[in-house]
Write a structure and sequence with these properties.
The structure is a single chain. The chain has about 190 residues and is of the alpha+beta class. It has one domain (about 1-170). About 40% of the residues lie in helices and about 15% in strands. The protein has a five-stranded antiparallel β-sheet with strand order 1-5-2-4-3, sandwiched between helices. A hairpin with a 3-residue loop joins strand 3 and strand 4. Helix 3 (about 90-100) crosses helix 4 (about 105-115), helix 4 crosses helix 5 (about 120-135) and helix 5 crosses helix 7. This is General stress protein 17M-like domain-containing protein. Pfam families: YflT.
Protein backbone atom coordinates (compact mmCIF):
# COMPACT_ATOMS: atom_id res chain seq x y z
CA UNK A 1 0.00 0.00 0.00
CA UNK A 2 1.10 3.52 -0.82
CA UNK A 3 -0.26 6.77 0.54
CA UNK A 4 -1.11 9.46 -2.01
CA UNK A 5 -2.11 12.97 -0.89
CA UNK A 6 -3.65 16.06 -2.41
CA UNK A 7 -4.02 19.46 -0.75
CA UNK A 8 -6.78 21.70 -2.07
CA UNK A 9 -7.62 25.32 -1.33
CA UNK A 10 -11.31 24.54 -0.97
CA UNK A 11 -13.58 21.73 0.05
CA UNK A 12 -15.47 21.52 -3.26
CA UNK A 13 -12.35 20.57 -5.23
CA UNK A 14 -11.33 18.12 -2.52
CA UNK A 15 -14.75 16.46 -2.49
CA UNK A 16 -14.64 16.19 -6.30
CA UNK A 17 -11.31 14.36 -5.94
CA UNK A 18 -12.84 11.99 -3.36
CA UNK A 19 -15.68 11.23 -5.78
CA UNK A 20 -13.21 10.54 -8.60
CA UNK A 21 -11.16 8.23 -6.36
CA UNK A 22 -14.28 6.28 -5.37
CA UNK A 23 -15.48 6.09 -9.01
CA UNK A 24 -12.04 4.78 -10.01
CA UNK A 25 -12.28 1.88 -7.60
CA UNK A 26 -10.54 3.12 -4.46
CA UNK A 27 -12.63 1.85 -1.51
CA UNK A 28 -14.09 4.53 0.77
CA UNK A 29 -12.32 2.88 3.71
CA UNK A 30 -8.99 3.79 2.10
CA UNK A 31 -9.79 7.49 1.53
CA UNK A 32 -9.75 10.36 4.02
CA UNK A 33 -10.65 14.01 3.91
CA UNK A 34 -9.87 16.70 6.48
CA UNK A 35 -11.13 20.19 5.61
CA UNK A 36 -10.98 23.46 7.51
CA UNK A 37 -14.37 24.60 8.79
CA UNK A 38 -13.42 27.94 10.40
CA UNK A 39 -15.89 29.72 8.12
CA UNK A 40 -18.59 27.30 9.34
CA UNK A 41 -19.61 26.30 5.81
CA UNK A 42 -20.57 22.91 7.25
CA UNK A 43 -23.19 23.41 9.96
CA UNK A 44 -24.32 21.17 12.80
CA UNK A 45 -27.69 20.64 11.10
CA UNK A 46 -25.79 19.21 8.08
CA UNK A 47 -24.45 16.37 10.17
CA UNK A 48 -25.60 12.80 9.81
CA UNK A 49 -26.51 10.70 12.86
CA UNK A 50 -23.10 9.08 12.62
CA UNK A 51 -21.38 12.44 12.67
CA UNK A 52 -23.41 13.35 15.76
CA UNK A 53 -22.00 10.24 17.43
CA UNK A 54 -18.48 11.28 16.46
CA UNK A 55 -19.01 14.77 17.85
CA UNK A 56 -20.25 13.22 21.10
CA UNK A 57 -17.00 11.30 21.49
CA UNK A 58 -17.57 8.08 19.57
CA UNK A 59 -14.64 8.97 17.31
CA UNK A 60 -14.37 9.79 13.64
CA UNK A 61 -13.82 6.10 12.86
CA UNK A 62 -17.54 5.56 13.55
CA UNK A 63 -18.51 7.81 10.64
CA UNK A 64 -16.28 6.37 7.94
CA UNK A 65 -17.81 5.05 4.77
CA UNK A 66 -21.41 4.04 4.53
CA UNK A 67 -23.54 3.08 1.57
CA UNK A 68 -23.33 6.58 0.09
CA UNK A 69 -19.52 6.79 0.14
CA UNK A 70 -17.03 8.56 2.32
CA UNK A 71 -18.61 12.01 2.17
CA UNK A 72 -21.89 10.83 3.68
CA UNK A 73 -20.07 10.27 6.97
CA UNK A 74 -18.51 13.68 7.56
CA UNK A 75 -18.01 14.66 11.19
CA UNK A 76 -16.99 17.89 12.86
CA UNK A 77 -14.09 18.12 15.30
CA UNK A 78 -11.72 20.81 16.57
CA UNK A 79 -7.96 20.62 16.10
CA UNK A 80 -5.78 22.92 18.23
CA UNK A 81 -3.91 25.32 15.95
CA UNK A 82 -6.22 24.46 13.04
CA UNK A 83 -9.64 25.17 14.51
CA UNK A 84 -12.80 23.38 13.46
CA UNK A 85 -12.53 20.81 10.69
CA UNK A 86 -14.85 18.52 8.83
CA UNK A 87 -13.34 15.06 8.53
CA UNK A 88 -14.00 11.46 7.58
CA UNK A 89 -11.88 8.41 6.89
CA UNK A 90 -8.93 6.44 8.16
CA UNK A 91 -6.59 9.43 8.61
CA UNK A 92 -9.01 11.22 10.91
CA UNK A 93 -9.67 8.01 12.84
CA UNK A 94 -5.93 7.38 13.20
CA UNK A 95 -5.28 10.97 14.28
CA UNK A 96 -8.06 10.82 16.88
CA UNK A 97 -6.75 7.48 18.15
CA UNK A 98 -3.20 8.82 18.40
CA UNK A 99 -4.45 11.77 20.39
CA UNK A 100 -6.63 9.80 22.81
CA UNK A 101 -5.71 10.91 26.30
CA UNK A 102 -3.13 13.38 24.98
CA UNK A 103 -2.71 17.01 25.92
CA UNK A 104 -4.52 19.76 24.03
CA UNK A 105 -1.97 19.85 21.19
CA UNK A 106 -2.22 16.09 20.68
CA UNK A 107 -4.79 16.01 17.90
CA UNK A 108 -2.68 18.13 15.57
CA UNK A 109 0.31 15.95 16.39
CA UNK A 110 -2.00 13.04 15.69
CA UNK A 111 -2.59 14.21 12.12
CA UNK A 112 1.11 14.77 11.53
CA UNK A 113 1.88 11.43 13.19
CA UNK A 114 -0.80 9.62 11.17
CA UNK A 115 0.62 11.04 7.94
CA UNK A 116 4.22 10.17 8.81
CA UNK A 117 3.20 6.68 9.96
CA UNK A 118 1.63 6.16 6.53
CA UNK A 119 4.85 7.11 4.74
CA UNK A 120 4.54 10.89 4.29
CA UNK A 121 7.72 12.78 5.17
CA UNK A 122 7.49 14.85 8.33
CA UNK A 123 8.44 17.93 6.30
CA UNK A 124 5.46 17.40 3.96
CA UNK A 125 3.13 16.48 6.85
CA UNK A 126 3.77 19.90 8.41
CA UNK A 127 2.86 21.65 5.14
CA UNK A 128 -0.34 19.61 4.84
CA UNK A 129 -1.33 20.49 8.43
CA UNK A 130 -0.57 24.18 7.82
CA UNK A 131 -2.56 24.04 4.58
CA UNK A 132 -5.59 22.78 6.50
CA UNK A 133 -5.06 25.44 9.18
CA UNK A 134 -5.10 28.14 6.51
CA UNK A 135 -8.44 27.05 5.09
CA UNK A 136 -7.61 24.10 2.86
CA UNK A 137 -8.66 20.49 2.57
CA UNK A 138 -6.46 17.39 2.49
CA UNK A 139 -7.46 14.21 0.67
CA UNK A 140 -5.42 11.11 1.43
CA UNK A 141 -5.77 7.70 -0.21
CA UNK A 142 -4.13 4.39 0.62
CA UNK A 143 -3.76 2.55 -2.67
CA UNK A 144 -2.07 -0.48 -4.17
CA UNK A 145 0.94 0.04 -6.42
CA UNK A 146 -1.26 -0.60 -9.46
CA UNK A 147 -3.81 2.10 -8.46
CA UNK A 148 -1.14 4.61 -7.37
CA UNK A 149 -0.64 6.30 -10.79
CA UNK A 150 -4.40 6.86 -11.14
CA UNK A 151 -4.65 8.23 -7.57
CA UNK A 152 -1.65 10.50 -8.16
CA UNK A 153 -3.30 11.84 -11.32
CA UNK A 154 -6.56 12.53 -9.50
CA UNK A 155 -4.93 14.11 -6.44
CA UNK A 156 -2.44 16.05 -8.56
CA UNK A 157 -5.07 17.62 -10.82
CA UNK A 158 -4.95 21.27 -11.76
CA UNK A 159 -7.07 22.33 -8.77
CA UNK A 160 -4.62 20.76 -6.29
CA UNK A 161 -1.95 22.78 -4.54
CA UNK A 162 1.67 22.31 -5.62
CA UNK A 163 3.16 21.32 -2.26
CA UNK A 164 6.72 22.54 -2.94
CA UNK A 165 5.48 25.91 -4.16
CA UNK A 166 3.16 26.26 -1.14
CA UNK A 167 6.03 25.36 1.22
CA UNK A 168 8.17 28.10 -0.38
CA UNK A 169 5.31 30.61 0.01
CA UNK A 170 4.92 29.72 3.71
CA UNK A 171 8.68 29.89 4.31
CA UNK A 172 8.86 33.31 2.61
CA UNK A 173 6.48 34.49 5.37
CA UNK A 174 8.83 33.15 8.06
CA UNK A 175 6.96 29.89 8.64
CA UNK A 176 9.14 26.94 9.65
CA UNK A 177 6.70 24.24 10.78
CA UNK A 178 3.11 23.66 11.78
CA UNK A 179 2.48 25.04 15.27
CA UNK A 180 -0.43 23.38 17.09
CA UNK A 181 -0.42 26.27 19.58
CA UNK A 182 -0.99 28.88 16.88
CA UNK A 183 -4.37 30.61 16.90
CA UNK A 184 -7.01 29.25 14.57
CA UNK A 185 -6.81 30.86 11.14
CA UNK A 186 -9.73 32.81 9.72
CA UNK A 187 -9.35 33.69 6.09
CA UNK A 188 -12.26 36.03 5.66
CA UNK A 189 -15.27 35.21 3.51
CA UNK A 190 -14.53 34.56 -0.11
CA UNK A 191 -10.77 35.01 0.13
CA UNK A 192 -8.58 32.34 -1.41
CA UNK A 193 -6.06 31.21 1.13
CA UNK A 194 -2.42 31.18 -0.05
Amino acid sequence: MRTVNGLFDDYDNASDAVGELEASGVPSDDISIVANNSEEWYRDDDRSAAAEDAGAGAGIGAVVGGAGGLLTGLGVMAIPGVGPVVAAGWLAATAVGAAAGAAVGGVAGGIIGALTDSGVSERDAHVYAEGIRRGGALVTARVSDELAPMAERILGQSTAVDLDSRRRDYEAEGWTAFDPDAPAYRSGKGRRVP
